[in-house]
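Input/output pair, single chain:
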Amino acid sequence: MSASSVDTKVKLLREQQLSILKNVIEICKKYHLTYFLDGGTLAGAILHNGFGAYDDDIDISMPRKDFERFISICQNELLQDNYLDYYTTNPNYYLTFAKVKNRTVNYPEKDRESQDYSHVFIDIFPLDEIKKKKRV
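Output:
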């Protein structure tokens, strides 16, 4: 496969990931949910004003209460071809965070369990509050 065809495929995947992210952001704005860019996505935004060359997905985080609310409402708010992949929607889901996927685009990364190709996705991580221990 030539470098230009790889670049084209990566560009198309990133465009689809951004489309999913825009859909998630619209839902967050509508319901006043807090979200943050996270991980390599945050690093790419700061260092490269976009995707980092090393990053292959989009990561966002939400405080736990907003994450749980997003999980409960997103299925009725996601665009037609987007869907939630999480233990509440998929009995075989084994991760501790959710993914919003687009069923029309396959992603080149193999699933670790089934070795099947996945749909293009973004990751959504819950952030749990940790209370500081009071010093005596």
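The first helix runs from residue 3 to 30. The CA atoms of residues 16 and 124 lie 16 Å apart.
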